[in-house]
Amino acid sequence: AFVAALLRHLRPHLPRLSPSELTNVAWALAQLRFRPGGEWLAEFMAATRLCMGRRGVASGGGSDPSGDDPSGGDGGGSSSHGSSGDAGALGQACAPGMTAPQLSTLLASLAALHISPPPRWHSALRGALRELAPDLRPRQLGLVMCALAKLRQPLPPYWLGLLAGRAEELLGLGAGGAHA
């Protein structure tokens, strides 16, 4: 009952949360094994989707190759607070976009709660992963791959090349890595 009440009070503030704060909310919910429902979840997904999409805008490139606009619509559900479709309000908090650690933690947290995001969210995720994949450390790559498997989502096609190109680093065989 406490977590549900906390989420009710947090709901009107979702559009103004930073990528770090949104990631922390998802992580905390996963740790508590509390799966929010309905409109709250739709608004949370809209806020995180827009934060993923803002990275390309802030850096001057990196849009989703699927052609979906990561900042449009609400990804499902409607809001009595009017925040789900309000790209302007959400964009202000999310201008810098998500970092690689935030994105991997967010995805792993959603997978732990068995929350399968809507298609537009996955579209924004693919765009963010394309841009952030080179920055993902081995642990973060593992989190993303496991989360996508739990959510029954395929790995992006370019990941085979990414993994092959970083095989020595990922296996700890590169300079400064662990030796057998």
Helices and strands, with pairings:
Layout: H1 2-10, H2 19-32, H3 38-59, H4 87-93, H5 100-112, H6 119-132, H7 138-150, H8 159-165, H9 167-170
Estimated radius of gyration: 17 Å
Order of helices and strands: HHHHHHHHH
Helix content: 55-70%
Q: Proportion of β residues?
A: under 5%
The assembly state of the depicted protein chains is single chain
Number of helices: 9
**Strand-pairing-aware structural class:** mainly alpha
Q: End-to-end distance, in Å?
A: 51 Å
Spans of at least 5 consecutive residues whose pLDDT stays below 50 are 56-93
Tell me about the biggest sheet?
none
User: Could you tell me the number of beta strands?
Assistant: 0
Q: Write down the overall mean pLDDT.
A: 77
From the spread of the alpha carbons, the general shape counts as: elongated
Description of the structure:
By secondary structure, this protein is mainly alpha-helical. The protein is 57% helix and 0% strand. The chain contains nine helices and no strands. The chain has helices at 2-10, 19-32, 38-59, 87-93, 100-112, 119-132, 138-150, 159-165, 167-170. It is elongated and about 50 Å long. The relative contact order is 0.14.
Defining key terms:
180 residues; mainly alpha; elongated
Short description, anyone?
The chain has 180 residues and is mostly helical.
